[in-house]
């Protein structure tokens, strides 16, 4: 690990003076945008250090703005598709997000996930990439919100339950080989009344029956939808551009600010089951004062529709992209 840190220190000194860096010893640094597409350093969200050690390839991915680790992986192939050994991923604040062991590209053994405060929120057993025995998920308050029980042989045959935070059942269904949904999956309103039934054939949904909050069947479409703004994206972008014109290549407090070519921002918007925005967070940061202004503008320009799942409104989040260069 000490040798790796020495290599990183040398490479990072060079890479921030260039858009990319490649060394003779099969080592390189590459910049990526928020969606993991290669990009110029000026608009990067991540950067990757890739190097070879014997027959293995190693990648260390970093959050560009925070300069903190995002994921650390070892691969047995140069195309970086077959993961081997422990894989660690992290939140931007440095807290561990997930740890899992891979053998020939498939998860093996216990896999654990954590929230940004370090609390365990996900724990399950895997065999050759398929869940087996048990899998549990918890909310931030420690309430069980998911339980999966599977065969001990690792086929993925079993049962899965989802729960509301108060412990009432939210959904139930069975899984077939490879842990794919099968047969009838039933969803419930928080009152205990059935909200819909899905019909699966080895992972493929074949149909759905919808019920209102009184348990009465109806024929209207009730497919699941993500949380979304009431206004069309084009309308939001136009309003955003109008309101944002005061800092277009202008003063932000006592500072002069100009957007780099290709600059953009990404917001994560949380909406509750009633359609009320509960939080908005900058996922791709630009500048502290710019980020704050973006949030202030966005919170005042639109209303929202809640996400639906199993014919029920739920709390969920979505991402909103805004190009900044050229506004």
Task: Please give the structural blueprint.
Elements: H1 2-15, E1 21-23, E2 27-32, E3 46-53, E4 56-63, E5 68-75, E6 85-90, E7 96-103, E8 106-107, E9 109-114, E10 120-127, E11 130-138, E12 144-150, E13 158-163, E14 169-176, E15 180-188, E16 194-201, E17 204-211, E18 217-218, E19 228-229, H2 233-243, E20 251-252, E21 255-256, E22 264-271, E23 277-282, H3 288-299, E24 304-305, E25 307-308, E26 313-314, E27 316-323
Antiparallel strand pairs: 1-2, 2-3, 3-4, 4-5, 5-6, 6-7, 7-8, 7-9, 9-10, 10-11, 11-12, 12-13, 13-14, 14-15, 15-16, 16-17, 17-18, 19-24, 20-21, 22-23, 22-27, 25-26
Task: Describe this entry's structure for a reader.
This protein folds into three domains: 107 residues, no CATH class; 107 residues, Outer Surface Protein A, domain 3 (Alpha-Beta Complex); 96 residues, Fusion Protein Consisting Of Minor Coat Protein, Glycine Rich Linker, Tola, And A His Tag, Chain: A, Domain 2, CATH 3.30.1150. 11% of the residues lie in helices and 47% in strands. The longest helix is centred in the N-terminal third of the chain and has 14 residues. 19% of the residues are buried. The chain contains three helices and 27 strands. The protein is flat and about 55 Å long. The strands form five sheets. The protein has an 18-stranded antiparallel β-sheet that branches. A three-stranded antiparallel β-sheet has the order 23-22-27, with helices on one face. It has a two-stranded antiparallel ribbon with strand order 19-24. β12 and β13 form a beta hairpin. With 327 residues, the chain is mainly beta.
């Amino acid at each position: 690990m000490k040798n790796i840190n020495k290599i990183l220190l040398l490479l990072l000194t060079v890479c921030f003076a260039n858009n990319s860096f490649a060394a003779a010893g099969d080592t390189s640094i590459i910049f990526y945008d928020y969606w993991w597409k290669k990009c110029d350093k000026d608009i990067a969200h991540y950067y990757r250090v890739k190097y070879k050690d014997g027959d293995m390839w190693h990648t260390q991915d970093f959050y560009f703005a925070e300069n903190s680790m995002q994921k650390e992986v070892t691969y047995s192939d140069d195309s970086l598709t077959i993961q081997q050994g422990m894989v660690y991923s992290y939140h931007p604040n440095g807290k561990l997000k997930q740890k899992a062991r891979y053998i020939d590209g498939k998860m093996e053994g216990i896999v654990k996930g954590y929230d940004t405060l370090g609390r365990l929120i996900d724990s399950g057993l895997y065999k050759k990439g398929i869940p087996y025995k048990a899998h549990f998920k918890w909310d931030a308050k420690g309430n069980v919100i998911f339980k999966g029980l599977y065969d001990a042989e690792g086929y993925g045959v079993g049962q899965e339950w989802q729960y509301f935070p108060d412990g009432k059942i939210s959904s139930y269904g069975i899984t077939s080989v490879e842990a794919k949904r099968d047969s009838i999956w039933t969803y419930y309103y928080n009152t205990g009344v059935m909200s819909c039934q899905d019909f699966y054939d080895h992972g493929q949904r074949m149909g759905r029956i919808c019920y209102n909050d009184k348990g009465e069947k109806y024929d209207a479409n009730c497919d699941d939808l993500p949380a979304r703004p009431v206004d069309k994206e084009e309308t939001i972008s136009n309003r955003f551009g109008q309101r944002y014109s005061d800092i277009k290549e202008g003063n932000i407090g006592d500072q002069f600010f100009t957007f780099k070519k290709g600059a953009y921002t990404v917001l994560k918007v949380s909406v509750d089951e009633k359609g009320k925005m509960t939080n908005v967070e900058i996922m791709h940061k630009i500048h502290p004062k710019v980020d704050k202004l973006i949030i202030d503008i966005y919170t005042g320009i639109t209303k929202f529709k809640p996400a639906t799942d199993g014919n029920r409104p739920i709390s969920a989040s979505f991402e909103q992209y805004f190009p900044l260069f050229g506004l």
